[in-house]
Design a protein that fits this description.
The complex is a heterodimer of chains A (347) and B (960). Chain A has 347 residues and is of the alpha+beta class. Chain A is built from 10 helices and 12 strands. Chain A has helices at residues 15-25, 50-59, 87-95, 177-181, 203-212, 234-237, 247-266, 289-306, 313-331, 333-336, and strands at residues 33-38, 44-47, 66-70, 119-121, 131-136, 146-157, 160-172, 189-193, 196-197, 216-222, 271-274, 279-281. Chain B is elongated. The N and C termini of chain B lie far apart (72 Å). Chain A: It is found in: Cell junction, Tight junction; Cell membrane; Cytoplasm.
Chain lengths: 347, 960
């Protein structure tokens, strides 16, 4: 069965609320389901957390096509690249589970079951001379294993070259996470910690910031060795050179927002032991005012469709997308003073 | 950056914030650090103190205070008030002169710097030619006489500081008529003292360092009298009638000289070495005060026998057969005598002596027999024993306040009843809004109770915990052993005593319940004392219990200090807070947290090993909980000092070397070369610093783990009546937070009042929360159904607080060094958080709930968190939504001890140490602001003497 309803693009809310909404719309309140969507390339991708839910909403063009499967008879292999070329197959699988062929297939676990590993991220939005490294400590016993020190670096400023204090990686502990990933090296200059610039901060402050973020540490460095930089196609590399520094500030707000969301997920890990029982993770209380707000919004929209007024989802989405860019333009002036002629990155 | 995360600035809220919050540093309490100069104006009855950092502070009647700071931050060498003016001149060690004046501005007086001036010699002359050694503000108020190292005396006009070159008194002019053989033996050298004739303003007495003294006639520009001293001169003083003067010398002698018109070169009347016959130290300053009964007071500084008492800092008062050498525990900077300043009065009749020592101000009543000390209403030496902790209690009930004052007054009976003699100016500040107490814990095991309501931080009462324990030092050691035949007749005065008998006695935590008068005090050797206020002396046995925090865990060895030995049997306690329960933690590690619940009669305490709960009603230990991680050897072995950073230990060893150097230098060189020592210190510091810089500074980046050292260190304890198990029944609970980010919650069963003595208090662990970021927990707080912090014990019973809302659901706020987190209760689920360190790189050092009232409307107030970070910033964070309201830079981030000493009040004020002896008071609130506001009026010039002076001066000016 098909349902069509609208969502506000700018405030997609949380996955859980969306999930609840789906169950409500389909009147299957107590059925566990798998949610998937087709992306712009026609791939069927899962929606099972805030991140990929937001991604799904943001890529909707204008319609977001969502597939729902009962969890117990879900076909995990349906997800992945080129799935939509087999679309009919999938649909028939979904719609007529009895037709499901009993052919054995390799079971690939859900993305949430994969262990995230340390990686270079955000290659597309950073200048080529910079590298953003995410160190995933989760699940490993390895220590982060590096040291930082004070130092000085040369910057391009409106008044010419200027020597400014900076923070550098001073030592990697053999066998530590930092060394074993090979993504950081001695004398790399640390530019940001989880999206926050370190310039103007003391060594102790940066140390505290890194330790506070140690569960999900994202460091942006300017590698001492610039020969292994990721080379991008000519369009983006055109902006390298003098704008390396200046393009940073304008990009930080967006990235920062990303980080914080990721962060919020990654540290729902405080543990509670009740009455000397078993340790449990502390759940997040559902009733924060923010999420309530977005929930009601969705409900309102939903209501309006029921009342016969069906707003064009295209309009709706476009409008909200517009408001996002507007907001950033309004708020940017503070940062404009910092930037020279950096490429302005919009959402 | 933050602004991007919080869209929508609410203009209403912004306006409200302006009505609620405002940052001011209002007043400095305590004793100025490193005082270097003293001045007094008998006309204004104001005293001025200058410091080595270039500050000058003026004090008059209690509440009358002014402060100024020289831009140069150089040492203030001399302070001179201009006679009969609201003006003063300071001389700094860079040889610059500064004119300050008190001017009225919008209803209150303000101290402002008006002019500055540096004396310049002719081109090519050596710097010593203009190096000022003596300053004489002439009674005409128009000129300053400046004695220099070259022996010349320059005259500058006030207030413009114009040099009147034709009136310079050169050493050549002075030497013209001095006998030749005297001249050959000693040249003039520097001007040591300048004194105006008390009756004739046209004559000034000039003393040169080599011993020559001349009386100079300003009208005729010539010497009228020569006094050929044979000893190095230190200072001069006129007798009131001008017929004699007295000089004091470097060999410990003083000499009287007659001044008469018939003998132009008289010999000395009397030459005396008061503490002879063996070699004595210099007498650096002397007063000669006449009295009605004819027996003068001779008061002088120094002069002690060099060999046996050369290390004493003394001022001797001689009055006929009475003689006392007041013995100070720190170097005497300067002193003055308060005497009848009426020009018409025939005699001086001194009433008080005011002595500025390096570490305290001592005032001696010279009118009362026995010369008792006067209790100063301000300038208290906070550091008479080093401050180890402080605790602030707002809004003390009148009853308790009076009882503390009465206990304190019994301790102060040896003080003089004399009203405070320095009483210039008028305090026009509004009366303090409430009675506030600041309690300071000290290294020597004392707790001092300060009246912190107003501008004057005043000692009310001093509590000593020492009597409970047996210490090595005999308490009779400190008694004044003043024998009749003792010579010199030394008498110890002042309270500054930096030497602690036993560091284990040090006070670490204080908690006072203002409603019940219960006081809990905890110290360095794991001792916890619970006390009660008693208005009478009493002798009783202190109940003693031991709390084994390791709970039979084996294989541990405590390598730190031993526990304190207790006195057996009944102990006599003076009126005031008297201990009735002593709990000693085992191992005897320093107590790191303390909480007292006066309604439930429970006291909780924590160390680096665990925490315990004691029922002080039944005098029974309720439970102990070991928080130690099994692998944490460091915490087991001993005091934290063992794991101090390398940097710190390095710094300390430097300091130790430096101290030994200084002391050896002192022994060799005496007190005269302080600047040399200072210089050497500076150089040494620099060397040490360079050495530090050579070593690469690097920081390890590592996630906190359960295996880290000192994770079990209990940082905070909190009592709350809340919903711990289920949402229908609330119960008393105890919360504890550790260094490793663990929060323990215990459910308590306190029997009802009628069966309180019969049934035991029971406790059961209900919850344990492990924060995954593992940062130290520095604060725990429960918010009631209205999101208001739970009231203090007995607050509701005394009708001073609304009873908490037990209908709505309660929330738990856990503050770690890195994050603020709100959880729901009784089922713990996380609700809100604010990550401070991840975003800003600063950590929480101190946090308190403060109530802020609006300055616009009386009926609005709200509770917020006042937070001090390790960078010295103060942030105000809203409750319960944890939104940053405002941020102020307050303390330099390098000032670690300042940050560590900070204490917030419940109404948005705070204190922190700016030096070992001074608290800076600050206010975050628009409503509560305690700052000096005072007026100094020009008293009317009553005598015609001055008019005469003036015309005399004009004559002089016309003639020249």
């Amino acid at each position: 069965e098909f349902r069509r309803f609208s969502l506000e693009r700018s405030k997609p809310g949380k996955f859980e609320e969306f999930y609840g909404l789906l169950q409500h719309v389909h009147k299957i309140p107590n059925v566990d389901v798998l949610v998937g969507y087709t992306d712009i390339h026609g791939d069927l991708l899962p929606i099972n957390n805030d991140d990929n839910y937001h991604k799904a909403v943001s890529t909707a063009n204008p319609l977001l096509r969502i597939f729902i499967q009962r969890k117990e008879d879900a076909d995990y292999s349906a997800f992945g690249t080129d799935t939509m070329t087999r679309k009919k197959n999938v649909l028939s699988n979904v719609l007529r589970p009895d037709n499901h062929k009993k052919k054995p297939h390799i079971v690939i676990s859900m993305p949430q079951d994969f262990r995230p590993v340390s990686s270079i991220i955000d290659v597309d939005i950073l200048p080529e001379t910079h590298r953003r490294v995410r160190l995933y400590k989760y699940g490993t016993d390895k220590p982060l294993g590096f040291y930082i020190r004070d130092g000085s670096s040369v910057r391009v400023t409106p008044h010419g070259l200027e020597k400014v204090p900076g923070i550098f990686i001073s030592r990697l502990v053999p066998g530590g996470l930092a060394q074993s990933t090979g993504l950081l090296a001695v004398n790399d200059e640390v530019l940001e910690v989880n999206g926050i610039e370190v310039s103007g901060k003391s060594l102790d402050q940066v140390t505290d910031m890194m330790i506070a973020n140690s569960r999900n540490l994202i460091i942006t460095v300017r590698p001492a060795n610039q020969r292994n930089n990721v080379v991008r196609n000519s369009r983006t590399s055109g902006s390298s050179g003098q704008s390396t520094e200046s393009s940073l500030p304008s990009s930080t707000p967006n990235i920062l927002a990303n980080f914080l969301q990721e962060d919020d997920e990654s540290d729902e890990e405080d543990i509670i032991i009740e009455d000397s029982g078993e340790p449990q993770q502390i759940p997040k209380a559902a009733s924060t005012s923010e999420s309530l707000e977005s929930l009601t919004q969705i409900e309102l929209l939903h209501e309006s469709t029921q009342n016969g007024f069906l707003p064009s989802s295209e309009m709706n989405l476009n409008h909200s997308a517009g408001s996002i860019t507007m907001e950033y333009e309004v708020r940017d002036p503070d940062h404009k003073s910092l930037e020279e002629d950096g490429t302005i990155i919009t959402l | 950056m933050r602004r991007f995360l919080r869209p929508g600035h609410d203009p209403v809220r912004e306006r409200l914030k302006r009505d609620l919050f405002q940052f001011n540093k209002t007043v400095e309490h305590g004793f100025p650090h490193q005082p270097s100069a003293l001045g007094y104006s008998p006309f204004l009855r104001l005293m001025a103190i200058g410091t080595r950092s270039g500050a000058i502070k003026l004090y008059g009647a209690p509440g009358v205070e002014f402060m100024g700071l020289h831009e140069e931050n150089n040492t203030v060498m001399q302070i001179h008030f201009i006679p009969d003016q609201c003006q003063l001149v300071t001389l700094l060690d860079d040889n610059s002169l500064h004119l300050w004046s008190l001017k009225q501005h919008s209803g209150a007086s303000e101290l402002r710097e008006e002019h500055r001036f540096t004396l310049k010699g002719p081109p090519g002359s050596p710097p010593s030619a203009t190096q000022i050694t003596a300053v004489l503000p002439h009674s005409s108020r128009e000129v300053l006489y400046l004695g220099t190292e070259s022996g010349n005396i320059f005259v500058v006009e006030l207030p413009t500081f114009t040099v009147l070159e034709d009136r310079t008194i050169t050493s050549e002019a002075v030497l013209q008529r001095v006998p030749e053989d005297y001249c050959n033996r000693r040249s003039c050298e520097l001007v040591e003292a300048l004194r105006e004739h008390p009756k004739n303003p046209d004559q000034i007495l000039i003393g040169y360092s080599r011993g020559l003294i001349v009386l100079w006639d300003l009208q005729n520009n010539k010497v009228t009298h020569h006094f050929l001293g044979s000893q190095q001169l230190e200072n001069l003083y006129w007798q009131r009638d001008g017929s004699k003067f007295i000089s004091c010398h470097c060999d410990g002698s003083y000499t009287q000289w007659p001044v008469s018109s018939d003998n132009r070169q008289p010999g000395p009347l009397e030459n005396l070495v008061p503490y002879g016959p063996f070699p004595c130290k210099a007498i650096s300053k002397i007063y000669w005060q006449t009295t009605k009964n004819g027996v003068p007071y001779i008061i002088f500084q120094g002069g002690m026998p060099r060999a046996s008492y050369g290390d004493r800092h003394s001022i001797s008062v001689v009055h006929g057969s009475q003689q006392t050498a007041f013995d100070f525990t720190s170097r005497v900077i300067d002193f003055f005598i308060i005497f009848s300043s009426e020009p018409t009065a025939e005699f001086d009749d001194p009433s008080a002596m005011v002595v500025l020592a390096e570490e305290e101000l001592v005032v001696i009543d010279l009118k009362t027999a026995g010369w008792p000390a006067v209790h100063p209403p301000y300038l208290a030496s906070l550091h008479c024993s080093a401050i180890t902790c402080s605790h602030h209690v707002s809004n003390i009930p009148l009853k308790l306040w009076e009882r503390i004052i009465s206990a304190g007054s019994k301790q102060n009976i040896h003080y003089s009843n004399m009203p405070w003699p320095i009483d210039g100016g008028t305090n026009i500040a509004p009366d303090p809004p409430q009675r506030d107490l600041l309690l300071t814990g000290h290294e020597d095991g004392t707790v001092r109770f300060w009246d912190a309501s107003g501008v004057c931080l005043h000692l009310l009462y001093k509590l000593s915990t020492v009597r409970v324990f047996l210490t090595d030092a005999d308490p009779n050691d400190n008694m004044n052993t003043l024998g009749e035949d003792e010579w010199p007749p030394l008498r110890k005065v002042g309270t500054f005593d930096p030497y602690s008998d036993d560091p284990r006695l040090g006070i670490q935590k204080i908690y006072l319940c203002k409603y019940s008068g219960y006081l809990a005090v905890a110290g360095t050797a794991g001792q916890v004392l619970v006390m009660e206020l008693n208005d009478e002396d009493a002798e009783h046995v202190v109940d003693h219990a031991e709390a084994d925090l390791l709970q039979d865990q084996e294989g541990y060895r405590w390598k730190g200090h031993e526990k304190l030995k207790t006195r057996d049997g009944a102990v006599r306690f003076e009126a005031g807070f008297q201990p009735f329960v002593l709990v000693q933690c085992q191992p005897p590690a320093v107590v790191t947290s303390l909480a007292l619940h006066s309604e439930w009669k429970l006291v909780a305490f924590g160390t680096s090993h665990g925490f315990g709960l004691f029922d002080h009603q039944q005098k029974r230990l309720v439970f102990v909980k070991c928080t130690l991680h099994p692998s944490d050897q460091l915490a087991l072995e001993g005091p934290l000092s063992r794991v101090k950073s390398l940097k710190k230990s390095l710094r300390q060893s430097f300091r130790r070397i430096r101290r030994s150097r200084v002391s050896s230098r002192k022994r060799r060189g005496g007190s005269g070369n302080a600047s040399e020592v200072q210089e050497a210190n500076a150089k040494f510091d620099q060397d040490a610093l360079q050495e530090m810089e050579l070593a690469p500074v690097q920081r390890k980046i590592e996630a906190r783990s359960a295996e880290d050292s000192f994770t079990g260190f209990v940082r905070t304890l909190y009592f709350a009546d809340t919903f711990l198990r289920d949402s229908s029944r609330h119960c008393p609970s105890l919360w504890a937070g550790t260094n490793g980010g663990t929060v323990y919650a215990f459910c308590l069963r306190v029997p009802p009042a009628e069966r309180r003595m019969d049934e035991p208090v029971r406790a059961e662990q209900a919850k344990e929360i492990q924060l995954m970021h593992r940062a130290p927990v520095v604060g725990i707080l429960v918010l009631d159904g209205r999101s208001t912090p739970l009231p203090e014990p007995l607050e509701v019973a005394h009708d001073l607080s609304k009873s908490p809302d037990m209908q709505g659901s309660h929330q738990l706020l856990v503050v770690s060094e890195e994050q603020f987190k709100v959880f729901t209760l009784p089922k713990v689920s996380s609700k809100l958080k604010l990550k401070l360190t991840a975003l800003e790189g600063c950590r929480v050092r101190k946090v308190t709930v403060a109530n802020f009232g609006s300055c616009k409307t009386d009926d609005y107030s709200e509770n917020d968190l006042a937070v001090l970070t390790n960078l010295g910033d103060i942030q105000i964070i809203s409750l319960p939504f944890l939104k940053l309201q405002i941020r102020y830079p307050c303390i330099r981030k390098e000032d670690v001890s300042g940050i560590a000493s900070c204490v917030f009040t419940k109404y948005g004020q705070g204190f922190y140490l700016i030096s070992p002896s001074e608290f800076e008071r600050f206010s975050l609130s628009t409503k509560w602001l305690v700052e000096p506001r005072c007026i100094v009026d020009m008293p009317e010039v009553t005598s015609n003497n001055h008019v005469h002076n003036k015309s005399g001066m004009e004559n002089a000016a016309r003639k020249s």
